[in-house]
Amino acid sequence: MSAHFEAPLNFGVVELAGWIAAFAEEYPTLQQLPVAPPVSIAPMPVQFNIMPVGTLPRVVLSSPRTNRIVQLQADRIACGWTRSQPIGDPADYPGYDVMMSTWRAILDKFHDWYAATFGGKPNIKLVELSYNNAIPALVEGRPRRMSEVFRFVQPGRTVNMFQVIWSESLTEDENGARVAAQFAIGTALPDQKVFGFNFHGLSPATGAADDPAAVGALDALHARILDIRAAQIISDADG
After folding, report:
1. Distance CA 225, CA 168 (A)
2. Residue 138 backbone phi and psi in degrees, to 5
3. What is the pTM for the complete model shown?
4. What's the rounded Cα separation, in Å, for the pair 140 and 157?
5. Is the pLDDT of residue 70 over 70?
6. Does the N terminus or the C terminus of the chain have fewer Cβ atoms within 10 A?
7. CA distance linking residue 88 with residue 135, whole number of Å
8. Are 169 and 178 contacting, i.e. CB atoms less than 8 angstroms apart?
9. 136: how many CB neighbours lie within 10 A of its CB?
10. Contacts of the segment 236-239: beta carbons below 8 A, 24+ positions apart
11. What 3-state class would DSSP assign to 180?
């Protein structure tokens, strides 16, 4: 989950250190990553601006015990959950409702830091929700057929490359909320062939990131993602 600010935050190393300190107890592990490019809603397909924002790195804080992360860069704040077990092994993903509670708690701390540093709350322009999933392509040493995973694939010949991408609008406005879905054959580290199915939702939002409208926009993206998943993924494949 992420919220993108209406205007990039103007902060330096001292302010960033204060933000890190605010989350250090719960998210003690720090990592710096290259700045992610800005995101914008555009007519389908979703387009991305490749120009970086800000001069400071993207800072990611994580809690190894819960697999949860929180990150900040000049144009956004985000939280997430990441698998630590090998793909195919059981993993205790907490679910959307728990992650929404985590998101609210992160925003509370973030807004406290922001109010003490700058005053008030920053306005946002959009919210984002993404899921990156993978299913092992081998089951007990047997290659799994794509038709056993994806409902829209008919049994047929063996293929080495496969990718399907589409985007669905939640409103009639071409610049409104949308969800993009991607299904493909891929490779997970270290060298495991997988069937990937990823979802990426964007929705315009105004006001503060914890306003009911912004939270409702994330809920709407999540509902559409669940609809697409149920319609296109054979659930037994998860086992």
Report:
1. 10
2. -115, 135
3. 0.88
4. 21
5. yes
6. C
7. 6
8. yes
9. 17
10. 237/135, 237/144, 237/148, 237/149, 237/195, 238/135
11. strand
Cβ proximity of 147 and 236 under 8 Å = no
d(CA 206, CA 225): 22
Q: With beta carbons less than 8 A apart as the criterion, state whether 197 and 229 touch.
A: yes
Each domain of the chain, given as residue ranges in start order, spans 2-238
Sign of CA dihedral 190, 191, 192, 196: positive
**195 vs 30: CA distance, rounded Å:** 31
Give 89 or 169, the one with higher predicted confidence. Answer: 169
Of the candidates 7, 3, 21, which has an alpha carbon nearest to the alpha carbon of residue 100?
3
3 state SS of 21: helix
- Give the SS3 label for residue 101: helix
**Secondary structure class of 218 (helix, strand, coil):** helix
Phi first, then psi, for residue 163 (nearest 5°) are: -160, 130
List the structure tokens of 13.
């190393």
H or E, element range at 5: strand 2-5
Give the pair of three-digit tokens for residue 142. Answer: 């047997």
The tokens describing 14, both together, are 């001292």
Q: For 123-151, how does the pLDDT look when each residue is reduced to its tens digit (9 = 90+)?
A: 999 999 999 999 898 888 888 888 888 88
The helix (run of H) or strand (run of E) holding residue 219 is: helix 212-232
Q: Do residues 15 and 91 touch, judged by C-beta distance below 8 A?
A: no
Q: Rounded to whole angstroms, how far apart are CA atoms 56 and 17?
A: 12
